[in-house]
């Protein structure tokens, strides 16, 4: 089993390959990849994602756009005037009420899903999409749900989801504890 540093070092050479960006050899599947890692390496992975984006731009001219799901949720709620209301609601009615209200406000899984729309509006000129903040956005956004819904808008660019947990090619296990629904359409980015 490779350690986290070796696996992180394999990301940039992998995504710099022209075949990776063209999604060749994927059997007509959309190029969705998962980089899974032990949750205790979250801060290391965050730092390395920033480095990879900068190095990919300077060394290969690649435009990688990172979408942090948690930051997107906060930005959408704030822009709609819901963020402060959510804080007040949580104090009065508890976290469960806020959770349900937030999912409803974001229109998750509906045709007009605000998170999906947010990402769709920012894809122009993107070579590769990085999806982060998976653990921070849970349980509001579930990893398999966001991937299923992104299939309809992220078609030209490969997408890499940085996942704090285990992905075995079929099952997503957030934090190595919480089993998400099965997801078979993504490929492991680098071997474990």
UniProtKB/TrEMBL annotation:
Pfam families, per the entry: BrxB
Native organism is: Clostridium fermenticellae
This protein's name: DUF1788 domain-containing protein
């Amino acid at each position: 089993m490779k350690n986290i540093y070796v696996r992180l070092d394999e990301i940039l050479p992998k995504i710099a390959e022209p075949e990776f960006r063209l999604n060749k050899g994927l059997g007509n599947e959309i190029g969705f990849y998962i980089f899974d890692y032990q949750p205790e390496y979250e801060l290391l992975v965050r730092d390395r994602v920033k480095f990879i984006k900068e190095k990919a731009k300077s060394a290969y001219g690649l435009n990688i756009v990172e979408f942090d799901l948690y930051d997107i949720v906060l930005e959408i709620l704030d822009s709609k005037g819901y963020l402060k209301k959510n804080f007040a609601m949580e104090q009065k009615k508890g976290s469960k009420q806020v959770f349900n209200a937030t999912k409803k406000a974001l229109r998750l899984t509906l045709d007009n899903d605000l998170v999906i729309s947010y990402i769709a509006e920012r894809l122009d000129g993107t070579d590769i999409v990085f999806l982060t903040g998976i653990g921070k956005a849970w349980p509001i956004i579930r990893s398999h749900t966001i991937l299923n819904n992104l299939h309809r808008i992220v078609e030209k660019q490969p997408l890499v989801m940085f996942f704090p947990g285990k992905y075995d090619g079929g099952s997503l296990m957030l934090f190595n504890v919480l089993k998400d629904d099965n997801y078979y359409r993504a490929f492991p980015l680098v071997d474990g």
